[in-house]
Specification:
alpha+beta, Beta Polymerase, domain 2, 2 domains, 4-stranded mixed beta sheet, 4 strands, elongated
Length: 227
Amino acid sequence: MTLPQAVARLTTGPLAQLNNDPDLVFAYAVGKAAQDDDSDDAALVCVWDSEARPDPELEKTQHFTLGEFTAMLDEMEQGRGWEYPSSPAVKVLAAFSDGILLADDSGHGMAARARVIELPEQLSQVALERVRGEQEEVARQLESIADPFERTSLLLDACHRAYVALFAAGGHWYPGPAQREEYIERYFLNERVPEAEKLVWEASTHADDSSGDLAGAWRDFVKAVLD
């Protein structure tokens, strides 16, 4: 397989410095270059059979221990560890599912890839149930919260869960906020969702002067997600 140039540079750069280490379990490339030959956006992720991540990290290189990586896979299969923007597993595994394996003498990388080819059914079920179940509670809180910081924090968490559910309903990993609109188009998901989300944030800016219906905008957003 001919590697994209940006990915090939990883193999002669940071991976060349790490590949002979017996503790390296597998390594893979992530970033737009994994899908687009013309992109320079590529980074190396290494998984190690050790108790701690290597230090210091090389440029454009991220490290996980095998225990950390396996725990993320286990959590997703159990429908846990996805609920907040700070939860790393969804984004890490979304990137892994789109990434390119570069080193895998152990076979652990291929085994892990087999676990992310299809989104875990439990994750899909739990995410959709959570968003349906909390729709009205979030709307109620949006109507009652006076502090803008607390309101924004609630929306960031709730919107994250809504997007995980949107992608999960289509059988896809949620790639994170920076790529949400690009991947909605890529996977032919409901294109009304980003616009509905924008209306939520617009209503949030007017929540203090009562000129916007934030709870109503939130309900419309969730309806678009679940449709």
